[in-house]
Design goal:
Layout: H1 25-31, H2 85-113, H3 118-131, E1 149-160, E2 166-168, E3 172-173, H4 174-182, H5 190-205, H6 216-235, E4 244-256, E5 272-275, E6 279-280, H7 283-286
Antiparallel strand pairs: 1-2, 1-3, 1-4, 4-5, 4-6
Helix pairs in contact: 2-3, 4-5, 5-6
């Protein structure tokens, strides 16, 4: 082995190139510039800060799905199925009763609006008892000849004063009062729209031309219309202190709607009155209205 061989460091043929790349201290001192005497030495350049260790990365752990509980119910029940057998039977019976009631109601309404048939001839009374008065159906809006009359219901009263004298009030136009209450009201009440009108329609349908009641509903319609009249007397403040309401009378004023100007149809515009007899007012009629 050659004596000049320095281990595994390769030998350079150029004599001016040192074989050891590390400079000697003398060479380093010679390469530094010499400051003149009396001068302030320049500050040495700041060496770059050594690079620190790279920040550690925080690992994001993904939670693993929970393992199924072997004791849990694999098919949990909800709704009616979660109830006990006794409650399930109760719910089923309630639903069955509701379904039967709905079917019966639909059938009754169908028989009421359907043309006369064998069922309505035999059981027409039962159908009417189910329908009237809450579920009455009519097709006047879609009739080929709709109503062309204005019907107004009016009433007056006989009052006995505190001094024993009797007086009769003038006619109060109850339909006009309801019309004024509805006009301009975006949400009129059901009583303002239908109470008086329906009571008069019921009276006309259950009485003959001589104002005699037909069946039990005729007497019921009389009592209903009479109590509405008594109630309206109280609203008009027709009774003074000590006065007693003795009887009321109701009439209708019917007039034809005049045809349009472009029509050649001629109709009478004279009103027709249907005046009922005086009805005595009982304690039941004044209960809760006029005392």
């Amino acid at each position: 082995m050659d004596a000049h061989d320095r281990g595994s460091t390769p030998r350079h043929d150029d004599p001016g190139t040192p074989s050891d790349p590390t400079p000697s201290p003398e060479a380093s001192a010679a390469s530094e510039p010499t400051e003149p005497p009396g001068s302030t030495p320049a500050p040495a350049p700041a060496s770059p800060a050594p690079a620190g260790p790279a920040p550690a990365r925080t690992a994001i752990s993904t939670p693993l799905p929970a393992s199924p509980d072997p004791d849990a119910d694999p098919d949990p029940r909800a709704g009616v199925a979660a109830l006990s057998l006794r409650h399930q039977i109760g719910v089923a019976l309630a639903l069955a009763l509701v379904a039967i009631a709905v079917c019966v109601h639909i059938g009754m309404v169908f028989l009421h609006v359907a043309p006369v048939n064998t069922v309505t001839r035999q059981h027409g009374g039962a159908v009417d008892d189910w329908i009237y008065p809450e579920f009455e159906q009519n097709w006047k809006l879609f009739a080929p000849n709709p109503l062309q009359q204005n019907v107004a219901v009016q009433m007056r009263a006989r009052i006995r004063g505190a001094d024993g004298g009797s007086r009769t009030t003038g006619w109060y136009d109850l339909s006009a009062q309801d019309g004024r209450a509805i006009d301009g009201n975006p949400l009129p009440s059901h009583t303002q729209q239908n109470e008086l009108r329906r009571s008069w329609d019921l009276f006309v349908a259950t009485h003959d031309a001589n104002n005699r009641p037909i069946g039990l509903r005729g007497s019921l319609s009389e009592a209903y219309l009479r109590r509405i009249a008594v109630l309206r007397v109280g609203r008009e403040h027709a009774l003074a202190r000590g006065d007693v309401l003795v009887s009321v009378q109701v009439r209708s004023r019917t007039s034809n709607v005049p045809p349009p100007k472009w029509s050649d149809e001629k109709v009478s515009v004279q009103p027709v009155f249907r005046e009922l007899s005086w009805w005595p007012v009982t304690a039941d009629d004044t209960e809760g209205s006029v005392r």
